[in-house]
Protein 1
Amino acid sequence: MLRNKTDEELVELAVSHDTDAFGEIVRRWERKIFALCFGMLSREDDARDASQETFIAAYRNIGSFRGDAKVSSWLHRIAVNQCLTIMRRRKARPEDLIDEEQMASDRVFSVPIEKAPGGLAERNERIEAVRRAVNSLPFELKEVVIMKEFEEMTFQEISETLSIPLSTVKSRVYTALRQLRSKLEKSELEII
Amino acid sequence: MRPGMDKMEKCNRKIEMVELVYDEADGVYLAELRSHLSSCAECSNEFSSLFATRTNIVEFRKDVFESLETPVIAFPPADISENISKSIWGWLDGLRYAFAVKLSFAGILLAVLAGLYGLIYLERPDEVQVASNTAAPLSIDSAQVEKDPFPPLSDPLTVSKDAVNIAEREPEIPRRNRGVGTAKSKKAAAAVKSADRRNENQLTDDFADDSLRLADLLEQIGG
């Protein structure tokens, strides 16, 4: 029954303390929010924490949700704020950055061999290079790339979520892809 | 031309190119763009490069992210509020059980003490009354005495009792105020003396009146 309702209807129910309605919102958006958090943070445990905190914050502030924005946009903004909080915390604790690099390397090098027919080491190096390149993008470019590739949103959805013109979204994605290409070319030269 | 600006930017087709990379190009422009790419080598290279970069990101996502399970979002909001209320009530219950015996013992002890105090109060009301009188502020009585040191004769006992009380309290006056207290006590003592003198005079007059009446009676008998 709840599955037939729109996000906005579910929010209205959740505001009147219908926890099942909020549960349906979580079910609908948890994967995308997790993808966003993982794309932004590149660490599984941090992404899980950020996702959890996102929905806790959403539930606590659901009374202040205004109907003029989409639920997805609202959740996205909360998730980005949670990610920024965790990133700030990381900067305050440099030892976490070392752990992050190590864990990322461990995760990349744990890709199964059958998934890497072209050679495990080469593939893993490329994946690691992509990860570094994405992480080094300016925030506004990284955000659109993550939304496009990890959340699998359309340009129109990104435009509505970020409240920016459609052409700006496309322009940012284009700029992001060009910067990524430049960074990847540099890393390939370093590898060679 | 800015350094780094290439054919793609000159063509200003970057937006259409991005749409094509992500397969979101409008059908109207799609055919036109495809024909342009087939005729423009630089734009074709640009498109290939952008597409390859995107492919790298897609592979990165598939390899690193898609194998991850979605975290189970425990329904924390409701659980948290329930847990908080449960923990608060649990604490209160714990405190109640821990101190139940002690609190009941203290309550019984308090009741016994209150009962004993009540018994003492009922058995010795005068002392308690005296104690309350001595605790009364001195200024009220002395003011009354100063205001009306010679009360009417119909109620002479009031004046004398207050005055006696004042006289009895004299040792309680602090040393630095002893001069003032002494003056007041002198006034009170004078009031006592004058009241006693009046009482004596009154009694004397009464006897005198009686003797006169007796003399008149004897005169009448004799007469």
Note: The longest helix of chain A spans residues 166-191.
Protein 2
Amino acid sequence: MDKVTLLATIKEVVAPYTKNPEALATLNEDTDFIRDLKINSANLVDVVLDVEEKFNIVIDNDSMEKMINVRSAMEVVENKLAAP
Amino acid sequence: MTITTILEKLPYGEPFLFVDTLEYIDEQKVTGSFTFRPEMDCYKGHFKGYPVTPGVLLTEVMAQIGLVCLGIYLTGGPEGMSFGLTSTQVEFMRPVLPGEKVTVTGEKIYFRFGKLKCRVMMTNAKGEEVSSGEIAGMIVQPVRNS
């Protein structure tokens, strides 16, 4: 999967959980889930579960803790897709 | 874990304990019941001259039985940990009057990364659906005022 598609898919996943439409509109690799998108920690769990479903991967606790921004989420997904 | 142990580990006390007993529990599902005592304070004002159980208390019964009891069963109710309510999405179909016994069934949707989300349904003594929805909570460190 190319980076553009990956970024667009992550944007789609986080959209229902964000409280900041402006940060969503300008979402990029540096966008932070909590600081920029204002997603609370409980909903962050749902974001991770939706990412799992969307990409058909399983995310472990260590990877979940790394997923604090769009870049790290993309890395986790790419790694899981490369070595399931 | 036995039902008696779960009831002992519940963090609630009077007047905010809304679990009388559990009828069943396993890793997926819990069933329990509570009877709203007619002398409860809320009936004096909800409503004036026409006592009906407030929806927030129906939600609380659903959360205590359908979410917290299952959470204690799944985690073993570790010392020093607590559950924080994170979301409720509940519909109410029928009123519950003073003295009515309700039965709550909670089914796990997921328990991942410390968050438990359940599909919870409440029925009255006739078996009619009173309310239903989805409730979620997370394991948190207890918050205490210093």
Note: The domain at 3-82 of chain A is CATH 1.10.1200.10 (Non-ribosomal Peptide Synthetase Peptidyl Carrier Protein; Chain A).
